[in-house]
Structure formats: structure tokens, C-alpha cells
Amino acid sequence: MDFLKFRMIDRVITLNKTQRSILCKTQLPESSFIFDAHFPGFPILPGVFMIETIAQAAGLLFIGLEGFKKMPILFGVEHTRFRHLVPPATALTVSVQLVHSGSGYIVCEGDISNQGSRVANAEVRLKLIDTPIETEALQRQACIAVQLPL
Amino acid sequence: MTDLFNTVADMISKTSGIDKSKITPDANLLTDLKIDSLDFLDITYEIDKKYGISIPVEEWVEEANSNSAGASDIFTLHQFLQRIQQLIDKKQA
After folding, report:
1. I want to staple B25 with a disulfide (CB 3.0 to 4.6 A). Which of A55, A60, A114, B78 is the partner?
2. What interface predicted TM-score (ipTM) does this complex get?
3. Is domain B2-92 given the CATH code 1.10.1200.10 in the classification?
4. What percent of chain B has pLDDT over 70?
């Protein structure tokens, strides 16, 4: 996880096109300006970053399934729970399943776990917009960096 | 159709906070009820999920933006529901 680059996912482990699911890993840094502020003397990962982590995994899942023609943009979050505190240096597993593919949007359910124990879950809704031509190469690079099978 | 109307009217009211008395068959979802695009996606998802269909919203928007006869009325609730009913019937056939 790289807060400065806003990259929440380190690596894609598996992309299952049949089950429309993705499994990813991410390692929290030992120190960060985020942890300095959230909270001073008691560093834990903010819940908004867990939502963003699930949303980014959902975006990778969509690109893995459909390619770069459309760009998924988060527009809704539902049924969210932050179940356990997540301290620095934790290794997280992120699992996302596409549960509905609509016209111009998708809905995914995501879980984040730490050593098999679920720490957060959320349903994310992503709107599909035409990919701006200038971003496609950058998106491709970002996907390659996390080893998304393309 | 009455059941479908009541179900979808409830979804619209709950999602967009529109008073149910204003949701009439003749109301246009976009111009009269002024449902914004994100609420519209949420409503679409609720309908998709409940009836196990996938409303081709993008296709209908393209049609509504075309100049073909009657196309501008697609998002009048009555016509919108007729099209949804057709999708439901097709799925059940």
C-alpha cells in the first residue's frame, strides 16, 4: 500500500474470470504521515482507505474482465462494516466479487482480511465511463505494476 | 402493472426522497421528477436485482436522444414500466 501514490493494492494474486472475482494482497507500511495523524500515538488504518482498497480491487477486476474501453468510477458504497482495527505493517488480503453487471454500472462485494479474519467489508457501486484517451496508457502501466493478468 | 408501479414508485421515493404523491404514471423520471444520474443508477440496480433483469439504460438513453417518434417519452414512468414489464415477461417466458 502506497499512500503517496494512492495505490492501495500491491499485487493481484488471482483473477477468476468465470467466477468474476479477484484476490489481491497489500502490505501496510510501518510508518506514514497517515498513521502519524490517525491517530497520534495510536496508529490505525482509516476506514476510508479500506473502502478505497475494495474499490480499487473492484476496478482491477472490471479491467481484468473487460479491458480498458470503459473506466470504472466509484459512485456508491453500501453495507459497509469496519470490524477490526488494522495497525501499521499488517498484511491484508482483498477479495472482491462482481455481483451485478448493469447497463453502465457494476456492483461488487468486497472483503478485506488479516490472516483469515475479516477486518472490513463493503458493497461498492462503480459507474462505467468512456476511458479518457490520455489515461489508458497510465492505467495499463498501473495494472502491469500490480501484476493484473491482461 | 399496478404492482410494478407501486414497487418502482417505492424505490424511487426511497432512493431520491421524492414524495410518493408526485410519482404518477405520466411523470417523466428525468424532467418532472428530476432524478439525477446516480440516483437513477441506484433505482435501476434495485429493479435489476428484484426482477433478475438488466435494464439496458444506455441503449434507452441513446434512443431517447434520437429523433425517432415517441423516443422522448421513454422515461415517462408509464412507458418505462411497460418496457421493464417486457423484460420481466421475456425472462419468465
Report:
1. B78
2. 0.82
3. yes
4. 92
